[in-house]
Amino acid sequence: MKTFIAVTIAGSDSGGGAGVQADLKTFSALGVYGASVITALTAQNTIGVRAIHDVPPAFIAEEIDSVFSDLVVDAVKIGMLSQGAAIETVAAGLDRHGQRNVVLDPVMVAASGDLLMTPDAVEVLRRVLIPRALVITPNLPEAAALLGSAMARDEREMCAQAEKLFAFGCAAVLIKGGHGTGPESVDIFLDATTQMRLASERVVTAHTHGTGCTLSSAIAAGLARGLPLTDAVGQAKAYVSAAIAAADRLAVGTGHGPVHHFHAWW
Fold first, then answer.
1. CATH number belonging to the domain at 5-249, selected among 3.40.1190.20, 3.90.1310.10, 1.10.3260.10, 3.40.50.1260
2. Is the overall model pTM greater than 0.85, yes or no?
3. Residue-level pLDDT at 200
4. Phi, psi (deg, nearest 5) at residue 82
C-alpha cells in the first residue's frame, strides 16, 4: 500500500498550535505521513510571540536536500519564511527537487498580531515563491499586504483581490475570509478556469490559533493523496471548519488556543 507523504516547510511553534506542529497534526489526521523542514524557531504560547530565531539559509537547504533526496514527496506546504534569503533558498530547493504540488501560506502576522515577516521579504515572496506555487492561501490581511492595498470588505472585493494575486503567477488563489464578519465564513477560490465560493457557518470562539496553517496543510494532504486541487480545497475547508467548531473542547493555555486537529478521535 502506498504511503502518502507531505512535507511542511515552516516555522516551529513552541506552543504546539500553529506552524510545523499544526501541519504535522493535520497531515496525521488526514492519513498522510508528514516530514518537516524548519525555517525558524519561535518562542511563543497562546498569548503571543516572545522571540524568533531564524534558521540559517544554508541549514534550510541541508534540511531540504536531506528530506527530498530520500522521501518520495507527494505535496509540499510552505508557511513561515521571515527573511528574503530563506525564501530564495526554499525556491531553489523546490526547483532542485522538481516539486510542483506546492501550497504556499504567506504567513506574515501571527494571530496575536505579532509580525512574522520582514518588509523586504514580502517583495521576494511575490517575485520568487508565488510563481512556483500551485495555490496560495492568504487571509484577508495577508492578501491586502501582498497587494499593498486595504483589506477586502466584501466578497466582491475578495474576488477582485484574488484576480490581482493570480496575476503574480501562481496557478490558483484561495483568499480566506475568517477575518470577515457575518454569519458565514466565506473563502474565495480562483484558478484559470474556476471561481468558487466556499462558505461555512462562522463559529464564535477565541480559539482559532493555527487556523491558516491547518487549512493550507489540509490542502497539501489532499493533494498528497491524489485529489484534484478543487477537491483538496473543499476537503480542507470542511476539516478546518470542524476543527474550529471543536476548539472549545480543548483547554490549552490562557490566550488564543488552538483548533482541535484530532476532533474526530478525541
1. 3.40.1190.20
2. yes
3. 83
4. -90, -15
